[in-house]
Amino acid sequence: MPNFSGVWNLKDQVQAIAAGRWTGVPTGELYAWGSNSSGQVGDNNTINKSSPIQVGSLTNWDEVASGRVHTTAVKKDGTLWGWGANNRGQIGDGTVVYRSSPIQIGSLTTWYEIASGEFQNISVKTDGTMWTWGYNGFGQLGNNTVVDRSSPVQVGALTTWSKIAAGSDHSIALKTDGTFWAWGGNTNGQVGDNTVVRRSSPVQVGALTTWSQIAAGGFHTVSIKTDGTLWTWGSNNHGQLGASTVVNRSSPVQVGALNNWSQVSAGLYVTVSVKTDNTLWAWGRNNLGQLGDGTVVNKSSPVQIGALTNWAQVSSGDKFSSAIKTDGTLWAWGYNGGGQIGDNTVVRRSSPVQIGSLTTWVKTALGPRADHTVAILQGSSN
Predict the structure, then answer these.
(1) What is the DSSP letter of 157?
(2) H helices within 10-89, ranges in order?
(3) C-alpha distances in angstroms, 288 versus 285, 335, 338, 349?
(4) Beta bridge partners of 364
(5) How far lies 361's CA from each of 68, 329, 364, 365, in Å?
(6) Which helix H or strand E contains 322, and what residues bound it?
(7) CA distances from 179 to 116, 182, 381 (A)
(8) pLDDT of residue 141
(9) CA dist., res. 120 & res. 66, Å (int)
(10) Which residues contact 6 (CB under 8 A, 6 or more apart)?
(11) Do the bridges between strand 320-325 and strand 311-316 make them parallel or antiparallel, or are there none, so unpaired?
């Protein structure tokens, strides 16, 4: 895996984290908040939290992902942890027992990347192998079956997997050669192979080797190429593909003609992205203010959120989003019925509001169906 060393400012750190290129300093404290019905916040109870609370006291959390009602994380030592709902084996501890605080999954120390969908997880190890577990009713685990798995199972034997993302019923990944692969539910064309046929093992999307960044929404897929162009496919009933229509697409379609997209995330029916000039953009469903543009009107093409040029990383979940600015502050907007925005209220927000006053947030992670927020705060000991 790449290892970029040296002294990076916070802006570069956050952007590198979003791009999966940072393996250095900013591990830290893990915080969570929002809906907690299944213990997904990780504080050993099932009470909703409307502001960030620290999960334990450790300062060595490195990667984190949130599913619909579960959380998965990797520590700096390469160990894998999970908690929350486990009815489909999504925690990965070999049981279907719910956990309201982090539990280690196995004893290996080679876990690296992690992504969580609605009820499934994907991980890439340091050796480039890919592993999945949880719900598999649509083949989203990619192991050529539709059988749930309550512990990690390897997908094939390849050692060239690089980046991963998980949607509601489909999963996607990039290989080190820049090719794009997808599998799982495909009713809306979200796999991208120009069909609506369910796939229970990875299939290549086209033949290009220029894919760079990926995101999986509820039932749509988003990717940025190495040339900075943005591409989408899958469900488009709320305009979440950004193609100025509400027509589903079963293969990649370019969003506009710009080539300055740098980071992207996809929620249930929305897409949010940051450009190279650090402006923030969003499109798709907006009935609860989840686009952040101060309205509740759906948008079928990208709209800029405010006029600021200091956005670094964004993550979108189930009807809400969170983001980190280049100054390390944390912001959120959209639905807030479970306190998932984190501003100590349950008031819906249709434009970004700052969460607390800290300036050392380095990562926020939301799955496309997540109703809770997880984030890493750089600790003073790192």
Answers:
(1) S
(2) 10-19
(3) 8, 6, 13, 8
(4) 375
(5) 23, 6, 8, 12
(6) strand 320-325
(7) 21, 10, 38
(8) 98
(9) 10
(10) none
(11) antiparallel
Report CA dihedral (96, 101, 105, 106) to the nearest 10 degrees.
Answer: -110
Residue 52: which of 379, 339, 369 has the closest Cα?
Answer: 339
- Domain regions of the chain by residue span: 10-378
Secondary structure class of 20 (helix, strand, coil): coil
Query: Coil, helix or strand for 261?
Result: strand
Surface-to-core class of residue 356, CB atoms within 10 Å of its CB (0-12 exposed, 13-18 middle, 19+ buried)? middle
Angstrom distance (rounded) from CA 250 to CA 42 = 38
d(CA 241, CA 243): 6
The structure's pTM equals 0.93
Side-chain-facing half-sphere of 353: CA atoms under 13 Å: 22
| Per-position b or e across 217-243, b if 16+ CB within 10 A of its CB | bbbbbbbbbeeebbbbbbbbbbbbbbb
Q: In what order do the strands lie in the sheet with 149-154?
A: 111-116, 120-125, 130-134, 149-154
Question: Looking at residue 380, what is its pLDDT?
Answer: 56
Residues of the chain with pLDDT under 50: 1-15, 17-25, 381-382
What is residue 68's predicted lDDT score, i.e. its pLDDT?
Answer: 97
Contact status, residue 202 vs residue 182, Cβ threshold 8 Å: yes
Distances from the Cα of 31 to the Cα of 80, 319, 363, angstroms? 17, 20, 10
Long-range contacts of 142-148, Cβ-Cβ distance < 8 Å, separation of 24 or more:
142/171, 142/183, 142/184, 142/200, 142/201, 142/202, 143/200, 143/201, 144/200, 144/201, 145/200, 146/200, 148/88, 148/89
In CATH, the number for domain 10-378 is 2.130.10.30
Contact call for residues 29 and 377 (beta carbons, < 8 A): yes
Structure tokens that stand for 169 in this block: 């019923």
Positive or negative torsion for Cα 5, 6, 10, 11: negative
CA atoms of 24 and 35, how far apart (whole Å): 31
CA–CA gap between residue 152 and residue 139 (Å, rounded) = 15
What pLDDT does 22 receive?
43
Whole-number pLDDT of residue 26 = 54
